[in-house]
Amino acid sequence: MKKVALHWQIAIAIALAIIAGTLTGTDASLFGVRYHAAYGFLGTLFLNALKMIIVPLVTASIISGIANIGDEKGLGTLGGKTLLFYFSSSLLAILVGLTMVNIMQPGVGSNLADALSGDQSVAEVLTKVEGKSTADVVEVFIRMVPPNIIAAAAEGQMLGLIFFSLLFGYFLSRSRSKQTEVVRDFWNGIMDIMTLITLWVMKFAPLGVFGLVAKTVSETGFASFQPVLIFFITVILALGIHSLVTMPLLLRFLGGISPAKHYRAMSPALLTAFSTASSSATLPLTMECLEEAGVSQRVRGFVLPLGATVNMDGTALYECVAAIFIAQAFGFDLSFTQQFTIVVVALLTSIGVAGIPAASLVAISIILGVIGIPLEGIGLLMITDRVLDMMRTAVNVFSDSCATAIIARSEGEQTKLAV
Ligand code: ASP
Fold first, then answer.
1. Domains assigned to the chain
2. What does the CA dihedral 167, 173, 177, 178 come to, rounded to 10 degrees?
3. Mean of the pLDDT values across residues 101-123?
């Protein structure tokens, strides 16, 4: 029998999950076991397996990636290109969001703000985000240098872990002593093993994805979307433009890459990003997809983990649209300077947003605080947040994969994605 490709298996799992989740809701059960609990079990098991891989994979990938780059100059150019690309693509994404939210005006003329008072879930979120301010932007840079690297790894502080791994890899590549050769082999070996473990975990992706999506659908249903429908559509359109127009143009003209081939090669990672709403958890799959596409470990190992942590185009775009939507709903007329501030703060905070579900809500509260809009507005986002989270996470992962593929081409790699 011919094997169904992984991305098709995942796509079918998502379709089945939507049907199953809608049919069962949260209460239906079979032999006393609630379907909802069974979905949760499958989903959590898969997510845990992915999270289990992340720390050793990211560390090994960066250390062996950098150690193999070798000379100082090669690292400098690669690093420079990567940061420039990440900065530009996030900025482009935010500008698309800014334009769309100004055209569609999803919050204008509605009495959405009134609908918020007394909502229980809003109160819950508020306790989480209260007291966040611009100081949290500085916090991002402080976190980059963790006082305790083991604690950073244990708490999933990827920024700190990456910084340490970069230093480790860099000095490993500079050391000429005989003793460090064994260290280089050690990390290359860990990288090989982590790749094999990832491949194995990926086989369970359809099951895990089924559980995650069915659980979400059984909880939210579809009826709750109506009040914020235009906002929902605005975000989807803006994400669509970024991932179906802007990025493909960059792929084609900057990297000489066929967007169709790229989408196909990345689809298992994109579908997993969609289902898990976590770009960190998806990293092992993204890594694998790019390896199969023929991108070298040297480029992949450096560009991708960095991107999964600091480059979030979908999140940056969402932050901008959401903040302006809330301002509109509260009747604020934002000046050019205020909109510009939103763009800058969205760009900065998207660097620090963790690659986990619903992480941007905190960043959005920082933006609201900076321009003086009531934090209660966050409540407006709760209804649609999960679905939009799934979509923006897929865009986050897509952008990282584009950056890696384009940079690989600029380094003279042929890859299987070239036109
Ligand atoms: N869930 C997103 C991610 O993992 C972050 C966010 O926008 O909430 O990439």
1. 6-410 (1.10.3860.10)
2. 120
3. 68
